[in-house]
Design a protein that fits this description.
By secondary structure, the chain is an alpha/beta fold. It contains twelve helices and eleven strands. The strands form two sheets. A seven-stranded parallel beta sheet has the order 3-2-1-4-5-6-7, with helices on both faces. It has a four-stranded parallel beta sheet with strand order 10-9-8-11, sandwiched between helices. α5 links the parallel β5 and β6. The termini are far apart.
């Protein structure tokens, strides 16, 4: 069948890994499905991708920057500035979305997404939203009013959303590389685990615990490790994602507190700001995953069948 006109899809979501990585997974599948039906996909992200833009570009998504805004449900002077930012992002969206005029808008919610949703509502563009959590965030609660279809990771989220809408419980999108690793016959193979440990400079015969606090990290995890690292490293090898925001502080504190420790500590502890291309290896190396329970992490760990806390 000859290729026909483009199918234009707008995707949006707050600028965290929990929003961006599912969008990348969805875009990868959409591109494949649309081409399989003889059309040419044109998937564009409207919003602020921040440090995660490479994940979108790799998935074949063009990025159109929209100034982000965030409404905090507590008193903060930033809320007054964000009223101005929201107004500006709405005006920005009116102009930029007009020249794209998508067939559908798909939103993962989160800060910064609602201005894009509001513009799509203004232009009568069909809106589909996906909620990863059992208790929806503010952006999706408001956006649900305008949505033609609401997709859920957990059925319990429906209690917080308009009852008259169409719902589908679909789980949470998982990155293609994670699914490919899970589908591999060798996904739990001891040889793969040994190779992954060696890749990070660890002993392949010793137990490794992978601490991951989500794409932005978890300060409590970082504090716990700093306070208990001597005892932990005496019993386990530790691989740790600190998060972009916390990496520099964690590095400085670690160097100050443990620069004179025995080499064994260094050999048993490796920390990184963020795992991107080597995330599959990090999971493969782990005998146990200790994670902050974001929806994205829950579904990735489940897909790989990793023991976890």
């Amino acid at each position: 069948m000859a290729k026909q006109s483009n199918i234009r899809i707008l995707v949006t979501g707050g600028g965290t890994g929990g929003h961006i990585f599912p969008l990348a997974a969805i875009a990868t599948e959409l591109n494949r499905e649309i081409r399989a039906h003889g059309f040419e996909p044109d998937v564009r992200y409207f919003g602020d991708a921040g440090v995660y833009k490479n994940a979108l570009l790799t998935a074949g998504i063009r990025i159109v920057h929209i100034t982000p805004s965030k409404w905090r449900r507590y008193f903060d002077l930033q809320n007054f500035f964000d009223i101005i930012r929201f107004a500006w992002s709405f005006i920005e969206g009116l102009w930029k979305i007009y020249w794209f005029m998508p067939n559908v808008c798909f939103s993962k919610g989160g800060p910064g997404s609602f201005a894009v949703i509001a513009v799509c509502r203004f232009y009568a563009i069909p809106i589909v939203i996906h909620e990863s959590d059992a208790v929806p965030g503010l952006a999706n609660r408001v956006a649900a009013t305008y949505a033609r279809m609401i997709e859920l990771a957990f059925a319990e989220a429906k209690e917080f959303l308009p009852p008259q809408k169409k719902y589908r419980v679909v789980g949470n999108p998982v990155r293609t590389e994670i699914l490919n690793a899970a589908a591999s016959e060798n996904s739990s193979d001891k040889a793969m685990m040994r190779a992954a440990k060696i890749e990070f400079g660890f002993d392949p015969d010793e137990v490794l615990v992978f601490f991951i606090g989500g794409s932005q990290g978890a300060e409590k995890f970082n504090e716990f490790i700093l306070e208990n690292i001597v005892e932990l490293a005496a019993n386990f090898q530790l691989l740790h994602q600190t998060g972009f925001k916390n990496y520099k502080t964690h590095e400085e504190q670690y160097q100050f507190m443990y620069r004179d420790r025995a080499p064994r500590l260094t050999h048993h502890y490796q920390f990184f700001s963020f795992f991107d291309r080597n995330l599959v290896s990090a999971y493969a190396a782990a005998d146990l995953v200790v994670a902050r329970a974001g929806a994205g992490l829950i579904f990735e760990i489940a897909a790989l069948g990793k023991p976890s806390i």
